Amino acid sequence: MRVTDDTVYEARLFLISRVGDRSRKYFHPVRVSNHRSQLQDKVVALLHDLVEDGDATLDEIRVSFGNRIAIAVDHISRRVGETYRAYISRLSGDAIAVRVKLADLCDNLHDLPRDKESLRTRYTDAREFLQETYAENILPL
Question: Partner of 97 for a Cys bridge, out of 11, 22, 76, 121, CB 3.0 to 4.6 A?
Answer without folding.
Answer: 76
